[in-house]
Amino acid sequence: MENIVMIGGGGHCKSVVDAALRSKRFGKIYITDIALKPGDDIFGCEVVGSDEELPRLFAEGTTKAFITVGFIKPSGIRRKLFYMARDIGFSFTNIIDPSAVVSLNAKLGKGIFVGKNAVINAGATVGDHAIINTGAIVEHDCEIGDFAHIAVGTKVCGESKIGENALIGAGATILQGVEIGNDTIIGAGSVATKNIGTFCTAVGAPARIVRKWT
């Protein structure tokens, strides 16, 4: 089994590590995080230090990496970490909790996390490094953009489109065929009944734009 390094050691890392351990796909699981001490562990997986240790790990034969920094607002940090690891030479795999249901007719990119009891239904497309978190539902024929985060308990109804680096907050609902733009936040518990553009925050039921990022 191949070794893998998790980049980021916060709360989201715990969810990913737990799913990785449950999947029994990996040998050693390493973690890098500047805020943690070398020699610490998360569920028995060693913290090796900051991201400065990544070239050493790669040289020693750990060639798989996963971005485990969480995403609560558009910041670009997950994409920045991806570029850093990619440029070192790391490749990326998907980590899917064994309790999740992913259709054989869905299309998944790379570096995707699918949490416990999440569902990705037939015909859906999920872009690279997206997060489909605990209990989230991505229905048939949806399109989820690169680096998007579909948060816990969210329902994305059929044929909807979620843009790159978008965040659909916990318990939100995106109705059938609705499109959410790049770098947009839909607040927790909101209901998007119509298209929402790019670089903004929308909240409420129905969701209305309350802030624009540009």
Topology:
Layout: E1 4-7, H1 11-23, E2 29-32, E3 41-42, E4 45-49, H2 54-59, E5 64-67, H3 77-88, E6 91-92, E7 95-96, E8 101-102, E9 107-108, E10 113-114, E11 119-120, E12 125-126, E13 131-132, E14 137-138, E15 143-144, E16 149-150, E17 155-156, E18 161-162, E19 167-168, E20 173-174, E21 179-180, E22 185-186, E23 191-192, E24 200-203, E25 208-212
Describe the 3D structure.
The protein is α/β, with parallel strands linked by helices. The protein folds into 2 domains: 4-93, Rossmann fold (3-Layer(aba) Sandwich); 98-206, Hexapeptide repeat proteins (UDP N-Acetylglucosamine Acyltransferase, domain 1, 3 Solenoid), CATH 2.160.10.10. The protein has 3 helices and 25 strands. The strands form 4 sheets. It has an 8-stranded mixed beta sheet, covered by helices on one side.
Core attributes:
214 residues, alpha/beta, UDP N-Acetylglucosamine Acyltransferase, domain 1, eight-stranded mixed β-sheet, 25 strands, 30% strand
Quaternary assembly: single chain
Spatial shape = globular
Uncertain segments: none
Helix vs. strand class: alpha/beta
The percent range for strand residues is 25-35%
Number of domains: 2
Tell me the name of the CATH class of the largest domain.
Mainly Beta
Order of the strands making up the biggest sheet: 7-10-13-16-19-22-24-25
Number of helices: 3
**Quick check: average pLDDT?**
95
**Spatial separation of the terminal alpha carbons:** 46 Å
